[in-house]
Amino acid sequence: MSAVLQKADTVLSARELETYRDDGFLTMRRVLASELMQRLNDVTDRLREEARHLTARTKHFDLAKGHSAERPRVRRISSPTELDTIFREIAFDSILGDIAAELVGGAVKFYHSKLNFKSPEGGAEIGWHQDWPVFPHTNTNLLR
Fold first, then answer.
1. What is the CATH code for 11-120?
2. Cα(97)–Cα(110) distance, rounded to whole angstroms?
3. 8 Å CB contact between 98 and 7
């Protein structure tokens, strides 16, 4: 494991856990090293550039209305963990899983990943929907 992705024994303070339980969210800054964030940004930019020449939705790329090579508009990249190792590193070898486990108070399971984009000139709206019916109903402690 690289030094950038080293895990800590304890990730969250008692105060952070209390804040999460009281407010339902937790803001943490600089959890991932800046060089790792730069790699994520670079790979994400590369993937969006790869989508520039698509003319229709694919397994991984959902295109917004008006998408073209001249004006690319990627709405979503589904399962980026299948497209570049950096996303697998973040999902499985970084501190993020440890944070999630501490927030839910036990083991966590990786369900899936996606990157959603909102274009500065008006992003595509994702219509109202419920994800709840597709999840197992034995554990309501979910993080998104």
1. 2.60.120.620
2. 9
3. yes
Is this prediction's pTM over 0.85? no
For the record, the structure tokens of 125 come out as 């709206």
Domains of the chain by residue range: 11-120
Pairing of β 74-78 and β 114-116 = antiparallel
Rounded to 10 degrees, what is the CA torsion of 99, 105, 109, 113?
-40
Tens digit of pLDDT for each residue in 41-63? Answer: 999 999 999 999 999 999 999 99
Burial class of 74 by CB neighbour count within 10 A (0 to 12, 13 to 18, 19+):
buried
Contacts of 133 (CB under 8 A, 6+ apart): none
**Residue closest to 75 by CA, chosen among 85, 87, 86, 60:** 60
Number of helices (H), then strands (E), in the chain:
4, 3
Strands of the 114-116 sheet, one edge to the other: 61-63, 74-78, 114-116
